[in-house]
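Regression report. Comparing outputs from two consecutive submissions.

Submission 1:
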Amino acid sequence: DIDSTTVFLRGESGTGKNLIAKAIHNLSSLSNRQFIAVNCAAIPENLLESELFGYEKGAFTDAKKRKIGLIELANGGTLFLDEIGDVPLSMQVKLLSFLESKEFRRVGGSTEIKANALVISATNLDLDDAIEKKKFRQDLYYRLNVLPIKIPPLRERADDILLLTNYYIKRFSKKFRKPLIKLGPDAEKAFLRYRWPGNVRELKNLIERFIILSTIPEVTFDDLPTVMKECLLQRGSEASSEVIPELNFEEKLVAYERNLIGNALEKAAGVKTEAAASLGISRYSLMRKMNRLFKEQDDL
């Protein structure tokens, strides 16, 4: 029964661990209960204990009244501990104690409080390395790692790219009350070829930007961010260079020139004057080379 265990999500930053944690919660029998998410890296070390466990009135100078902690709020539902690898060692001991007993004490309190929740934790850190360096407790790792889930980066989940794109288009169109947009064929192909170093977070932010700034119903290759287009063009150059060694010397030179001019034209969105300037030649020289090089290609 997943509702009574601990789930451990591992993956690169931005792979959508929060989305997957929510999906696990929604698919469990706790879907109608609270989902409490805690970014452990975003809470200062000296405040983390009181945020998680709460505190009693008078526990410290500013404790004017009792505060219910996030663990207590998650009782009966799901507790998502994101960036668990950033929890300091002193807190790791207390977390382990809670996970094993399902009991804890508020800061400044003496009464044991029970809290039973599905605990999902996540990290993008190499915890094996952290354990070896004595920065993460091995016993806590074993307790969290009952049901491990490895989340592959977006570049390895081609089937998810367009699904997530359509999801975020609908989500942000509704949020900003903007008309739906779609990817044109060239933009769709680019989305599938791009490596997405920022993973789902990068995709999400890009779609949000498109929706906010959109004035046309279809996104084309020209509308993509410059960095993204440059990465795609570089990948195209690398792919082309893999074929060149099979050609003779003259054919290699022709292929190289075609590739160079093709990249310059794509970066300049087809404006030949700009493409020529980036290559350091005149527009006339560019046109002459294009007529020679691409005519030769058509004759093959």
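Submission 2:
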Amino acid sequence: MNKSKILVIYTGGTIGMINDIETGQLKNVNFDLIYDHVPELKRLNVELHTKSFEKPIDSSEVNVKDWVEMAQIIYDNYSDFDGFVILHGSDTMSYSASALSFMFDGLKKPIIFTGSQLPIGTIRTDGKENLITAIEIAGAKDERNNPLIQEVAVYFDYKLLRGNRSTKDSAEHFEAFRSPNYAQLGSAGVSIIYNHDKLYRTTSEILTLNTNLNTKVALLKIYPGIDFQLYKGLFDINTSKAIIIETFGAGNSPSSESFRALLEKYISDGGMVLNITQCNSGSVKQGMYATSSMFTKLGVISGIDMTTEAAVTKMMTVLNQSNPKEILQLNLRGELTL
């Protein structure tokens, strides 16, 4: 079998840092010399190529422009490679993975995000294993010589997760990511075991890329005693085109006339409101309790079991389309359970 051709894209983040011998400070790795830093990669049955952002970014600084750059690199090189690995800071990795999953339609090759909690140049780094296995996964083929993974995924600490189902839940542990409402796509031990029945397959024949994202999306987390008038400015169609509300439990909020009035006017003015749960796992079930019944009556859309990262990025990608409300309720890339 021919070697899989993999493009590794370094955007920034902890994984790409090593100690400067002279200054003792951390500096960015030159990924053109990737075999010098991770010689174990030579043993993989892949042909590696690398490309780095001209100016590596801290993941806290990632924005839509960076998502477009990542996606454009992949789109421009799509026919030349069998798979792609994006090295990215862990703090916003799930946002970026979710965004790219919605920006691409018709994806039939793997885009694997990975990173590390410790710099790749430190002795105890988790970066080497994450990088090596992410590349191996990106190069994996099925019995018909097609890419085994055909979606955007996150690989971190022996777990392969759907990108738009992942969320970071630890700032300290190597096991930094989880997938609260969907099973792992695979796990790495002595062998890499794939959950074949959980892998996503597109029905679109042609690869397309949507870079027309709308950032006028607000996020409001409900809390006990909230004064909704403090957030009145969000409910202005000239300020935000959509609002995602993180509610209690199965989609509940306080019975507030002030909140109801804000929602009613905002939606009547053309604003979109999406309801997701702030719980670590579970699903919104609007109307199950009286406190959420007003959402359905007013036209608030249930986000079902989407993560915050998926809800925000999905909203950004559909807002500028001709029928965003209808598209938002569809299961586009395996991001929600219908």
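Expected: both submissions complete independently.
Actual: both completed, but the second showed a warning that disappeared on reload.
Relevant detail on submission 2: The helical segments are 34-37, 64-77, 93-103, 127-138, 257-268, 290-298, 308-318, 324-328.
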